[in-house]
Amino acid sequence: MSTTETDTDYAKDVLVTADWVADRLTEFENDDPEYRLVEVDVDTEAYDEAHAPGAIGFNWETQLQDQTQRDILEKDDFEDLLGNHGINEDSTVVLYGDNSNWFAAYTYWQFKYYGHRDVRLLNGGRDYWLENDYPTTDEEPNFSEQNYDARDPFEGIRAYRDDVEKAMGRGVPLVDVRSPEEFSGEVLAPSGLQETAQRGGHIPGATNISWAATVNDDGTFKNADELRDLYESEGVTNDQEVVAYCRIGERSSIAWFALSELLGYDNVVNYDGSWTEWGNLVDAPIERGK
Questions:
Q1: Among candidates 189, 171, 192, 165, which has minimal Cα distance to 248?
Q2: Which terminal residue of the chain has fewer beta carbons within 10 Å of its beta carbon, N or C?
């Protein structure tokens, strides 16, 4: 059985269906580290109430970031987190989470940053799993610790502030995946979320292609033809570097995943500093309006 939907024609086999996960719950619940299922949310309150059987719960804010540096985990901290939860470098890890996999996609990107070979996303995420009545539990698994040996960081998928400045000068496509209201500077953050920048607007030259345009109403990804048309209609093609950004780096991970993993674009980077960094820089250029 293929792990992906049959009619999507993606470049890489990195999406699994809810049925695929449901058929393998016994493996995910087993202490053997071959298969691990991980739910990633901005907090673990929803996970505590109900999650897929065997799923480990990761708090994106407190466990997958260095709160002091406001940065992703250092290599040894990443190794400790995964090893302490029964994951090793040979595990097949399936990630899912809330908000159509915002934070799960970020975690997927972080796994790839540290060279994990077999990591996938559950298409549709937590909402799809719950809305389609797949099994849930409130029991938290307790797996035996493993030794996790991460590779050195793969900087080819990450953009820093200097990279963005250089990209602006070279006319590299900058894909801003935030809402039109955030892009124009009308608001600084989605409704109900903390404002993390002093100024509103977008990086000069950026194109607004919302992350929401990459998914269907049920939170599953659109097929390859639809995704290709979406990006190519805005001049984002696979013959150039592409930089994706949002507010804190999680929604832009959706765009990075769609472009790099589903469409197979060769040179896509995620600017995880995103608007939280750029919108707070002194003398950094910004644009407002559409």
A1: 189
A2: N
